[in-house]
Design goal:
Blueprint (H helix, E strand, L loop, with lengths): L1 H12 L2 E6 L18 H4 L2 H4 L2 H10 L1 H17 L4 H9 L4 E6 L5 H5 L4 E3 L2 E8 L4 E4 L2 H13 L6 H8 L5 E3 L7 E7 L10 H11 L2 E5 L10 H8 L3 E5 L8 E3 L3 H14 L1
Helix pairs in contact: 1-12, 4-5, 5-8, 6-12, 10-11
Bound molecules: 2'-O-acetyl adenosine-5-diphosphoribose (OAD).
The site of 2'-O-acetyl adenosine-5-diphosphoribose has 26 residues, from loops.
Length: 271
């Protein structure tokens, strides 16, 4: 496969590599993408589920639908483990200086062993207060407990108060803590929010200075994240796309990340 050989060569020639990932890299861990057929935004329209205001309105008018959205969002992340693609990306840092820039909020890159990860859309596992200050962490087990509680809210009356009680470990109001009194929620970026800092500034720097960028499992439709490969290309970096869908990049590896990325690493290790 010529494209695979070209990709291996480009990565071997690079001093500094960026891996830019989207939902597709976690698809083989059981987490649905957003825009593929049957994707998240087809089941849950962004107008009602992708912004804080949309979520607030949905909570008030149709809490049952918010319960379904939260179960669909949290359950796969709670159950997920890194797949072969996450592991191959982590292995890349053994060969070259590698920065991972991810749009995902699932922390699977870190769990696979990647040590330099910019989470430009934040993470589901850090909790922040209304001023953006860190107030705590939750784990996958906590998410699973929340999912189980949400499932019990599906039937019966008073859905909204029961839903709010169910998600308390993740979001709510702290009335009694003197230090962290007030609202708290996960540190995730929703539509209309600024990107997560300092990760976004660090990501822009890494993209501007890399020699090769692996773009894995992203439709490239969401801005400003989508500017990163454009900027890297303009500054002379080789862009390698790994995605079942065709891309306009010069090195285009069509297929699942979990199959292609281990082959790239094998190619680098064997030459
Ligand atoms: P999308 O759902 O837009 O795109 C997913 C991409 O993954 C598509 O190009 C698929 O072809 C590809 N894909 C599917 N399965 C794959 C596999 N096994 N291996 C490799 N690629 C695969 O998801 P993103 O581009 O990540 O932001 O979406 C970007 C942002 O839009 C998300 O971070 C989220 C969303 O709205 C916010 O909510 C702020």
């Amino acid at each position: 496969m010529i494209a695979l050989r070209d990709a291996v060569h480009a990565l071997q020639s690079a001093q500094s590599i960026v891996v830019f990932t989207g939902a597709g890299v976690s698809a083989e861990s059981g987490i649905a993408t957003f825009r593929d057929s049957g994707g998240f935004w087809q089941r849950f329209p962004p107008e009602r589920f992708a912004s804080w205001n949309g979520l607030r309105r949905t909570a008030i008018h149709t809490p049952g639908e918010l319960i379904e959205f939260l179960i669909a969002l949290l359950e796969p992340v709670a159950m997920a483990q890194p797949n072969a693609a996450h592991r191959a990306i982590a292995d890349l840092q053994e060969f070259r200086s590698t920065t991972v820039i991810t749009q995902n909020i699932d922390e699977l890159h870190q769990e696979a062993g990647s040590t330099s990860v910019c989470e430009i859309h934040g993470t589901l596992f850090d909790l922040i207060d209304s001023r953006g200050r860190f107030v705590g962490r939750i784990g996958r087990r906590d998410l699973l407990k929340i999912v189980n509680r949400l499932m019990r809210c599906r039937s019966g009356p008073f859905k909204l108060p029961r839903l709010l009680a169910a998600i308390q470990p993740l979001a709510g109001l702290r009335l009694w803590h003197s230090e962290t009194r007030g609202a708290y929620r996960p540190r995730i970026v929703m539509f209309g929010d600024a990107l997560a800092e300092p990760d976004w500034t660090r990501a822009c720097g890494a993209a501007a200075n890399c020699d090769a960028m692996l773009v894995v499992g992203t439709s490239g439709l969401v801005w400003p994240a989508a500017t990163l490969p454009i900027d890297a290309r303009q500054r002379g970096a080789v862009i390698i796309s790994v995605d079942p869908e065709a891309s306009g990049e010069s090195i285009n590896l069509r297929g699942n990340a979990g199959e292609i990325l281990p082959r790239i690493i094998q190619g680098i290790a064997n030459t």
